[in-house]
User: What shape does this take?
Amino acid sequence: MIVVDCDLRRRTVNRLLNAEPTTGLLEVLSGEATLQQAITPDKETGADFLPLAKSAFTPRDVFGSQAMDRLIHDLRSRYDLIVLDTAPVLPVADTRVLAPKADAVLFLARWRKTPQHAIEAAFRQLAGTGAHLAGVALTQMDMKEQSKYGYGDPGYYYAEYKKYYVS
Assistant: This one.
């Protein structure tokens, strides 16, 4: 598995790795570095990461380029699972360019924070790209708070089955 940081503004993978790489995705796409030079393996998870190095310059339409298409093709020959970690759909066009290149899109929505109308608007935008929306996952969910909503709600069963979800 490889996680490719495609959020040019936040560079989330760098925070996860607690690192500030000097070589990353943009350098691979521009030909300044090889994929092997840019990949950061994580011994704890066994996953590889392709981070974003801090760069003063970001080429225009980097994700719509032939270099990005070649990179995804190359990654598919090396990995069983490729995760393209992107920016939010609505404010950033990059994600709408990348989504149709993926086999499937998993949409993440923050529990009790992401408004339903924003989710619906994002779905419409993704549908317009031809991307395959495989599902939605709620993030930062408070299972104890959710379990207070009562019978019939999946959270109702939290107390009974929490050992399966919380280690």
Notes: The chain has eight helices and six strands.
